[in-house]
Amino acid sequence: MAKTLVFGHQNPDTDTIASAISASYFLNKAYKLDTEAVALGTPNAETEYALNYFKVEAPRVIENADTKEVILVDHNEASQSVANLADVTVAGVYDHHKINFTSAAPLWFINKPLGSVATVLYYEYQTAGIEIPAAVAGMMLSAIISDTLLLKSPTTTPMDKPALEGLAKIAGLSDYEAYGLEMLKAGTDLSTKTAKELIDGDAKSFELGGQTLRIGQVNTVDVNDVFARRDDIVAAIADELSSENYDTFVFVVTNILDSNSDILVLGDNQDKIATAFDVTLVDGRASLPGVVSRKKQVVPPLTTVFEG
Ligand code: MN
Ligand code: MN
């Protein structure tokens, strides 16, 4: 009989990959099931870092579930799942998201609003008295760090830190903060990108009060990593201002760990930008504490000043 496949959502993140590996091992040990962890895509750079660090092989990638039964982790909605989900039976779910799921038969459905599915699984292991292998523990702690941004995101719960500490002990990781920072950094590795790729990444244009503003944003765990390349970035922005006829370029560099941003402003309207954020621009740069969202925290104050 074909193995029961355990997998997380499409565009897999670290929690999805780690929880598939962890849940598969747990179910085989605790319930004598015959399961295999698989994935609906290849690991991202952050997950790759964790897999390499703990010497764990990436799960096999599947297009369709070529089996009778599946177990879902880190998702429960069909739209985020395998293409042929309707053709197979969902035998179990380990999740921490809102529920949009129905079934024709009873199933294991374990959903707790904790920081990560790895946290949920950690307590499943504890309850069942199953030992977690060191490498699996390493992946699980990576998942907690990823989903909670090192216990700093507003999604973090009181259950996550004890789980992370317990897993670090099992994995033999003495400094999970240092490891976590490196892992998160690997996921925001901008070093392979050119300055033009950095500023273009997800840049959008806005027409405000007759001026064309171009606003680009990058995520990082250390704004200094980005500003170390300031000269190249300034040159790339200057090129774009003249070739595309933008009046102003606002480059937003967001620290995902402390939820602060720095902006770098080039072109006209420096006074207006400074007024919008109530800051002083020094060589075009200013810090915007607590700002992470372009849509909600950058464009609205600019609109007020430019169109007010
Ligand atoms: Mn996820
Ligand atoms: Mn998750």
TrEMBL record:
Keywords in alphabetical order: Hydrolase, Manganese, Metal-binding
Gene Ontology terms for molecular function: inorganic diphosphate phosphatase activity; metal ion binding
Record's keyword annotation contains Metal-binding: yes
Enzyme class, broadest EC rank: hydrolase
Alphabetized Pfam families for the sequence: DHH, DHHA2
Gene3D superfamilies per UniProt: DHHA2 domain (3.10.310.20), inorganic pyrophosphatase (n-terminal core) (3.90.1640.10)
Cellular component GO terms, alphabetical: cytoplasm
Record bears the keyword Lipid biosynthesis: no
Record EC number: 3.6.1.1
SMART domains (alphabetical): DHHA2
Positions of the DHHA2 domain: 180-306
Co-factor(s): Mn(2+)
Catalysed conversion reaction: diphosphate + H2O = 2 phosphate + H(+)
Record-linked SUPFAM superfamilies: DHH phosphoesterases (SSF64182)
UniProt cross-references to NCBIfam families, sorted A to Z: PRK05427.1 (NF003877)
Record family assignment: Belongs to the PPase class C family.
Protein name: Probable manganese-dependent inorganic pyrophosphatase
Source organism: Weissella hellenica
